[in-house]
Amino acid sequence: MSPVPPLRREIIVDTDPVTAFEVFTTQIGRWWPIADKGVFGADATVAFDDGQLIERSADGRSDLWGTVTRWDPPYALAFSWHPGEAPTSHVEITFAPAADRTRVTVVHTGWEAYADAAAAREMYEQGWPTVLDRFDEAAQDTWVALMHRRGPAAPETGSLFEDPRLAEHAAFLGRMRAAGYLVMAGPMSDRAGEGMTILRLPGPEQLGTATRLATEDDASVAGGFLAVTVRHWHPMMRPYREASEPGGSG
Questions:
Q1: Per-residue pLDDT tens for 220-241?
Q2: Per-domain residue ranges of the chain
Q3: In the chain, what percentage of residues exceed pLDDT 90?
Q4: Is 207 helix (H, G, I), strand (E, B) or coil?
Q5: Are 21 and 77 in contact (CB under 8 A)?
Q6: pLDDT given at position 234
Q7: Can you tell me the distance from the alpha carbon of 115 to that of 101, in angstroms, rounded to the nearest whole number?
Q8: SS3 state of residue 245
Q9: Are the CB atoms for 119 and 113 separated by under 8 Å?
Q10: For the domain 142-232, what is the CATH superfamily, name and number?
Q11: What is the DSSP letter of 44?
């Protein structure tokens, strides 16, 4: 057994394990830093394909990075690792719930395959943080603020709460809650007829999905009773129970 210990890196990403696993596997070509950590350069792609992790160049060449040895969505993934001419080592990645986020742990072993095991481990000690930073960016959930106000079909004065059409908006909020998207919602106490809803959609770049939900799935908006503006929203603070979770790269 190699005297060089396993390399372990850990981060907490702002999404659920199902989404985190999907981003790491089916979407790996979208975020992997292929220009710096690939064989064929920036124009290449990488993907899991039929139990193998393969890089393909723009001119049709391919390089087998590794073969999957464990595929247990959304909890774990493991594969042999030998990109380019590298000796074969082994990578295991686990995805565990951490409050409403996910702890992602990478364990890289098999340094005995290298002529200089310590140097190989040091190289990956420097490389994995870059990869995980890119993955963290790709795995971010999309937070949006829906800013509601009186629509063209609403009365110009009076309380909207007395209008039966507000029930359509309440039904929309109920569907968002059932889907696990709703964070909070309520009226602006100092602005009659205005309110705000915060949604959290799994995965990155979901503003288009949020816009479709807010304008088409909410019948009160589609019918003109309410108007809505959809904006990206970034939570600057979290409940203490989340902030105190151990994590970060380490």
A1: 999 999 999 999 997 765 544 4
A2: 7-138, 142-232
A3: 77
A4: helix
A5: yes
A6: 78
A7: 39
A8: coil
A9: no
A10: Dimeric alpha+beta barrel (3.30.70.1060)
A11: -
Fill in the amino acid letter for 67: T
Query: In the block, which residue shows the tokens 């902030």?
Result: 243
Say which residue the tokens 């993934």 belong to. Answer: 77
Tokens read off for 113: 């395959």
Task: Find the Cα–Cα–Cα–Cα dihedral 114, 118, 123, 127, rounded to 10°.
Answer: 100
Domain 7-138: give its CATH architecture.
Answer: 2-Layer Sandwich (3.30)
Strand 7-13 and strand 101-109: pairing?
A: antiparallel
Distance CA 2, CA 110 (A): 8
Using CA atoms, how far apart are residues 108 and 83, in angstroms rounded to an integer? Answer: 14
| Of residues 143, 195, 202, 140, the one with CA closest to residue 172 | 195
Residue pair 100/88 in contact by the 8 Å Cβ criterion: no
The residue among 89, 80, 128, 134 whose CA lies nearest residue 105 is 128
Determine which helix (DSSP H) or strand (DSSP E) holds 24, and give its type and residue range: helix 17-25
Tokens describing residue 53: 């992790």
Give me the phi and psi of 239, to 5 degrees please. Answer: -55, 150
Tens digits of residue pLDDT in 40-82: 999 999 999 999 999 999 999 999 999 999 999 999 999 999 9
Q: Is the dihedral of CA 129, 133, 134, 139 positive or negative?
A: positive
183, 201 contact by CB (below 8 A): no
